[in-house]
Amino acid sequence: xxxxxxxxxxxxxxxxxxxxxxxxxxxxxxxxxxxxxxxxxxxxxxxxxxxxxxxxxxxxxxxxxxxxxxxxxxxxxxxxxxxxxxxxxxxxxxxxxxxxxxxxxxxxxxxxxxxxxxxxxxxxxxxxxxxxxxxxxxxxxxxxxxxxxxxxxxxxxxxxxxxxxxxxxxxxxxxxxxxxxxxxxxxxxxxxxxxxxxxxxxxxxxxxxxxxxxxxxxx
Length: 219
Fold this sequence. Notes:
- By secondary structure, the protein is mostly helical.
- It has helices at 7-33, 65-93, 96-99, 106-116, 131-155, 161-166, 170-198, 201-208, and strands spanning 2-3, 210-211.
- Helix 1 (7-33) packs antiparallel against helix 2, helix 4 packs across helix 5 and helix 5 runs antiparallel to helix 7 (170-198).
- The longest helix is centred in the middle third of the chain and has 29 residues, at 65-93.
- The protein is globular and about 55 Å long.
- The model has no long low-confidence stretch (mean pLDDT 88).
């Protein structure tokens, strides 16, 4: 038995998962009120497979536009605070060192990808987290910050005009915010799939904090 995850990491992990699920569902409810980017009736140059169409009721939260907005804003602040608590813990505890993806991790990430694809028989050496996990965690934290920033750019486009301008204007800020939803969905599905197929013990570790077994090798 190896101690793998601190209580703060486990709590913020599960809280963010629930909050993110609610924010996605309420965001889809908000999107359904105007399922198009750009001026009404005018084509938009960027890809949107759901242009002009809504999402099924089971995927939405709020029932109507005002309900979706209420849920979205109610969940947004806990999501931000939970994310900040996680980042502060990583900095204070020094855990960020085992999670941050660095240039030296590019080659190990490629070797780990080859292992997952069956192109390499032996599991590459790793520490607490392998290079692909570092890349995923570093990327998702960065994208979480972008999602929050683009959300504020949409919420207060006049007061935060400079932030909205950084995203290319209101319509582009709304588009990037919507696009990030599907990045989070894809990340979550891939994350769960890899846990179930490759390392189920890590799921129990995220609940209890303890990892039963041995890592393939350590740095």
